[in-house]
Amino acid sequence: MVNIILILITGMCAGFMNTIGGGGSLLTIPMLIFLGLPSAVANGTNRIALMVQNIVAVTNFKNKGFFNPKLSFILAIPAVLGSILGARFAISLSEEVFQKILAIVMIVVMILIVTRPEKKFLKKAQENLSKSRLIVAVFAFFLVGFYGGFIQAGVGFIIIVTLALITGMNLVKINSLKVFIVGIYMFSSLMVFILSGNIDVSKGLILSVGNGLGAYIGSNFAVAKGDKWIRRILLLIILVMAGKLLGVHKLF
Question: What is the pLDDT of residues 200-237, one digit of tens each?
Fold first, then answer.
């Protein structure tokens, strides 16, 4: 019962975080690992909740008129290919190696949360990309897909920075592209984890409920003031979890 409550609360926090920027998986994957799931299973299980969350988000953006089908599909194709390779790579890693990589990723994303580099590139939108920019975007999203299939944690921040740099779109349009692309490649990477048996359906469904509630709360309240506060809490949690994954506590 305690584990169910913990999964629900963590899922709610993650869902809320994902609606105001991203980083929710930096809470959920370590939490599932600490509950005793093998790293690959925790990685796969987390994707059930993310799949549900992105389906809801895509629907909402589409209903509000923020949807660029042409660019979305163009960028989703290389992301899908990359995610399949990334998921297969994640499954092949040992527990220790995956957890160390996850800890390093958490620290890098923590830096992105603090510096907010995407703000430098939010300028005049270029939704009709030139051929050269489109080639760069396709290659970039193959790499994004690989990373998303591999770990997924913090990929939202990476996509925001990438799209801001390439297109200069505002954050609303960027997020509408982000959730569609992630939703498409998430399905392919989730199938890799399902077919390899690296998934806990019951915990994934509980996490989905938490994520959904968190996303609902986050999307129905003004979070301008709460954004700074929640980021500070997230930074503290990430720092503690990264330290534990790296084994820092064993030094004391």
Answer: 999 999 999 998 888 777 666 534 445 565 566 666 76
Nearest in space to 29 (alpha carbons), one of 162, 118, 148 = 148
Extract the tokens encoding 230.
Answer: 């929640």
Per-residue model confidence as pLDDT tens digits over 78-115: 999 999 999 899 888 887 888 788 778 777 777 776 77
Q: Is 195 exposed, middle or buried (0-12, 13-18, 19+ CB in 10 A)?
A: exposed
What one-character DSSP code corresponds to residue 153? T
Task: Give the whole-angstrom CA distance, residue 171 versus residue 169.
Answer: 7
CB 199 within 8 A of CB 44: yes
Query: Domain span at residue 47?
Result: 2-251
Task: Measure the CA–CA gap between 28 and 245, rounded to whole angstroms.
Answer: 14
Predicted confidence at residue 200, as pLDDT, reads 92
Number of structural domains the chain divides into: 1
Rounded Cα distance between 41 and 207, Å, is: 14
Per-residue tokens: 73: 């599909």
